[in-house]
Design a protein that fits this description.
This protein is an alpha+beta fold and 557 residues long. The chain contains 20 helices and 20 strands. The structure holds adenosine monophosphate.
């Protein structure tokens, strides 16, 4: 299939705002996609190149792209940046610039989807010395064979800003429509496969039956189920009657996959962090008494002296570590607390009630006290006991308490009321930095004020909810500037637009309705708590969640 065909679909999608119409466009197109491309096209339709579980990442920032575009169009990177600033869109700018490019071949070849994908793959695989140059060269080759219209979408895809208004929900509906299967069957298959390519292919070839045959696979991470904020202990018990209370450990989530002797560990962001965590690998291999299993837990960094949980930054330092891993283990030892099981010896466990899953989990874990054990749990229907459990958890220095529905299944990727969390501090939001302002006076030369955006669940678009500038320490200022500078797409009147990449946890006093921001909401007195390196923009909080918190806050007043 020619890439131009995919481009025309992107154009049709951009031309309408109707969700129904978009779904129809995607469905019609999927029907026409040949089988061998069904692996890759669904991801490309939502503006991603590789499925979420894949270890491949493009790693192309604006400056690298601009250099490639400059080379192909015979201009300078600065001129590319200017054009992006003028048009306000990377795609349009690249389209304009490529229209000026020197025709390299007399008979322009038609670019194929497969070739574009392979180029992306090559870019992602380039690593080590000289990798930046190799990435640029590959991009240059690709853009040189692209028409201006094709270049527009290549550029947008590369920077993760496709903007055609197709997000996961819409893609799911379109797959169902295309191959005449139910939305619930597609949804279910996506939960276990975590890959729309696999799902679309099965739906096309074998319909609902094919979808139901998709298996969870050890080694392919599953999206984690998320917690909902509990309005109060009383409210949750009113709803559940009886519930499981667990300590909310303040660490980083780990999904541990075991097959035979092989252990793989994935972060919350589904990155493979196995190599950085040999201590957890060793313990998991010893403790998990099953041939095959996928279990979940929290890895907590403890201060060896005080036994209290350490800062999140320390945890991330260990997750990131590539060298001297052993030294880091001694410096920042981990404890792991398991709280769920998704797969056990050929059986998918996510449909089972939580109480059954916990039973299965405890039956296969041989605990190693203080190192690798089950999350502390109390099943009760007593609100008094719940308050006591909560106080004890906080007194021990933990973050809070989880209240879990004993009868509920595990829903990957969803924030449903099956698992509540309760913490003493106000709920924070994880938001994407999409822009920044250059500081003035003492802060000149620093990016000192940041534009915060939440994701629209339906369209995937990032919508502004506020700006944060105060309360940033000098150290943070330095770190933010260092991190954000390479992401600059263009600047206009001191305001900088950034490739969406950095996610920050933001505290605030209140959420207000606001006509000033495109999300319709504004945060009052926002303050940066920390950079959430464990989250990608796709995992940032959504506008829908901001609305939910807004409603909750109104009820509490
Ligand atoms: P939050 O990140 O604030 O939405 O809280 C949910 C997170 O708490 C999960 O993603 C886990 O990483 C973490 N967590 C800590 N202890 C538990 C537990 N006992 N059960 C479930 N999640 C837990």
């Amino acid at each position: 299939m020619e890439y131009a065909r995919l481009v025309s679909v992107y154009e049709n999608l951009e031309a309408t705002t109707s969700k129904l119409e978009k779904t129809r466009i995607v469905a019609d197109f999927l029907r026409e996609v040949p089988e061998e491309l069904l692996d890759i096209i669904p991801s490309l339709l939502i503006g991603e190149v590789f499925p979420e579980w894949s270890e491949l990442e493009l790693g192309v920032g604006p400056s690298l792209l601009y250099e490639a575009v400059a080379f192909v169009s015979g201009t300078s990177a600065a001129e590319v940046k200017n054009t992006v600033a003028k048009t306000g869109d990377v795609g349009e700018a690249v389209e304009q610039l490529l229209a000026r490019k020197v025709q390299l071949t007399l008979f322009a070849r038609k670019l194929l989807v497969k070739e574009v994908y392979e180029a992306f793959e090559k870019i992602a695989l380039a690593s080590g010395k000289g990798s930046q140059d190799r990435k640029i060269r590959t991009l240059v080759d690709l853009l040189a064979s692209a028409s201006p219209r094709e270049g527009k979408y290549i550029a947008r895809t590369v920077l993760g800003e496709l903007r055609v208004g197709v997000a996961e929900g819409l893609l799911r509906d379109a797959i169902a429509q295309a191959f005449n299967v139910s939305v619930s069957a597609v949804e279910r298959a996506y939960m276990v496969a975590n890959d729309f390519g696999i799902v679309a292919k099965a739906a096309k070839l074998e319909g609902e039956e094919g979808l139901s045959k998709i298996k969870m696979e050890v080694g392919r991470p599953i999206k984690p189920m998320l917690a909902q904020l509990a309005p109060s202990i009383e409210k949750v018990f009113e709803e559940l009657g009886k519930a499981a209370l667990e300590i909310k450990y303040d660490g980083a989530r780990v999904q541990i996959h075991k097959r035979g002797d092989e252990i793989k560990i994935f972060s919350r962001r589904l990155e493979n962090v196995t190599n950085a965590l040999p201590d957890i690998v060793k313990r998991a291999a010893r403790a998990i008494k099953a041939k095959e299993a996928i279990v979940e837990g929290e890895a907590v960094a403890v201060d060896p002296k005080t036994r209290r949980p350490r800062a999140f930054q320390d945890i991330l330092r260990r997750f990131r570590r590539k060298y001297d891993v052993e030294k880091m283990i001694a410096e920042i030892p981990f404890e792991t607390y398991l709280f769920d099981i998704l797969y056990l010896d050929g059986e998918v466990m996510i449909d089972l009630a939580f109480e059954k899953r916990r039973e299965a989990l405890s039956s296969i874990i041989q605990e190693e006290k203080g190192k690798f054990e089950l999350a502390e749990q109390l099943v009760t229907d007593s609100i008094n006991e719940a308050h006591e459990f909560y106080s004890r958890a906080l007194a021990k220095g933990h973050e809070g308490m989880m209240i879990k529905n004993l009868k509920a299944p595990y829903i990957p990727g969803a924030r449903v009321g099956y698992m509540y969390k309760i913490k003493p501090v106000m709920e924070t939001l994880d938001l994407v930095i999409t822009g920044a302002l250059w500081g003035t006076g003492k802060r000149a030369g620093w990016l000192s004020s940041y534009i915060l955006a939440a994701r629209d669940e339906d369209t995937g678009e990032l919508l502004e909810v506020g700006r944060v500038g105060t309360g940033v320490t000098e150290e943070q200022l330095e770190e933010f500037t260092r991190r954000l500078k390479p992401l600059i797409e263009y600047e206009e009147a001191g305001e900088v637009r950034l490739k969406p990449s950095v996610v920050v946890e933001v505290a605030y006093q209140e959420i207000q309705r606001s006509p000033n921001y495109d999300s319709g909401f504004a945060l009052r007195f926002p303050r940066v708590v920390r950079i959430r390196d464990d989250k990608s923009p796709a995992e940032a909080d959504t506008v829908q969640r901001v609305r939910e918190l807004y409603e909750m806050q109104r009820q509490a007043k």
